[in-house]
Amino acid sequence: MRIASRVIGGVLAVTLLSQLTACGSIFYPDRRGQIDGKIDPTIAVLDAVGLLFYVIPGLIAFGVDFATGAIYFEPGKTAQVAPEKLQEAIGADGKVDNAKLQTIIQKETGRTLPLDDPRMIQFKGSVQQLASLGLQPAA
Fold this sequence. Notes:
Blueprint: H1 2-20, H2 23-27, H3 41-53, H4 55-68, H5 83-86, H6 98-109, H7 127-132
């Protein structure tokens, strides 16, 4: 009997604590700082579930998500760089120079990407992908 009450108390505490931190701020930390936009229905529903079961934490979740802007969709920012300009970042041995690539991307798009981040995962492309862009394999 004692173990069951401890488990229930622990689950309740974790649930309340997670609602206090707000769903959108946890799931999409990169959305913080927005002041308006289209509301993400997924985050709104998750906050509403918190409101349904736990009124005060649900209100706090909504308040935090609206205050931080995490409840809004990201604005539709897209940027493209012509494949020909990216050729400058490929060395003679066929390897991509991240510093040159970062400079090209920043110059063309105005955005800085953390290409030197150790958590970045690089995927190798295929010959078919290069052909679809009109490029020839050069290594």
